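Subject: Predicted fold for VCBS repeat-containing protein, 442 residues

User T.R. writes:
Posting the sequence so we have a shared reference for the thread.
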Amino acid sequence: MANNFESGNLDGFTSSLGGTGTAEISSDQAHSGTCAVHLHVTADEGSLANLSTPLPAGTATAYADGWFNITQAGVLGNDVPYLRFFSGDIRVADVYRYNDNGELWLRTTAPDGTSVFTRLISSSITLSEWHHVAMRTTANGAASTVEVRFDGTLVYSSNQIATAATTLDRVQLGAEHNRQMGDSYIDDVVINAAPRAVSTASIRSAADVVAVGPDGTLWNYPASGQGTLQTRQKIGVGWSGLAKGFVADWNSDGTFDVIAQWKDGRLSVYPGRPTGGFAAARAIGTGWGSYHVTVGRWRNTDQYPGILAYDAAGTLWYYGNSAGTSLAPRIKIGTGWGGLYLTMTDFDQDGSQDLLAKRSDGRLVLFRSNGNGGFVAESRSAVGSGWNSINSITDVAGFTTGSSGLMTRLTDGRLAHYPFSRGAWGARTIVGAGWSTYNILR
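User M.O. replies:
I've generated the structure tokens; pasting them so everyone works from the same file.
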């Protein structure tokens, strides 16, 4: 289901209203086009306004993505919700802006019915500005999964959420309680659903390690969410011709895909199936043999991940992915990037993706982005040294609950996790050994 509300209706949604609450198409605010839906709730008795989308029977995984502009917060001690996922009367997971301080919070419901709260962003979310919120939830009892992106940055990922729910039946915008005051404008909403997976072979989380073995077998090493990897699972064969691979939700359907850069220069996407495995490869380019690639949502307005890459001349280009399928015409970002090992991640966690560049002298240099496709005008600082002992770097989220970090391979074949928070490193942990012969996807 997708609705940008330009047709002037609420197709795909059911509205629940009470008292002074309203849900209407408005031209006062719009993220794209000329209008958005406006949810208005007051502190008056009985005031209520929300929109919900029913999910097919047996839905296990749901993905919701939209743009939100909260122009009026509510009373202290309360919140203004973004997205809520339900299983019957159980509110499985929801994200919201807390009125007291503007922070972003995640709330999940434990099997005993109590709420579990996790702060996702400690700074105040600005009112009267558009923010991009995306959330994927899989109801799987004690091993449920929740992933949250805010303004293009993965701020939470865990596949160890305990809940009583094993299916989902609706996604909701707005609150189900009376008098939950707030004014929210919502635009460009996409909601997808998938049934219970019959196979566990797909890539489950943004912390999984995916790698090609010496014989060309593609393996997934699921992350436990507690700082370890679980028993590997075979998810493909015939990958010996891979030069570099990348894991991303290329089409934003809630299931991880693989972007393959082959040794012969072909670039292709393998869409992940929610039931495990991948659909047939889709070609998205040729002549990529000399490019150094990193994948992610480079601009804050990107709905889908794109490709940032430099060519043999060291020119850095951005290839957008405007429809979740093929690449858009490239945009020149800069020159002089040759020889750098680039990793896209939001290192300072300001909501915009950055570049970490590993130099040949082992220094790791931070290039902060402005969220609009360029870089912050500032001197570049080194955030690490001695990184020439590392030959593989993958951005991961949720390797430990709520964490961000880099999964790296040392030149001696050990796998090491480097967590970071707001531009500061945590303590490194060694995850495993014997990875020298593996081609680790990024």
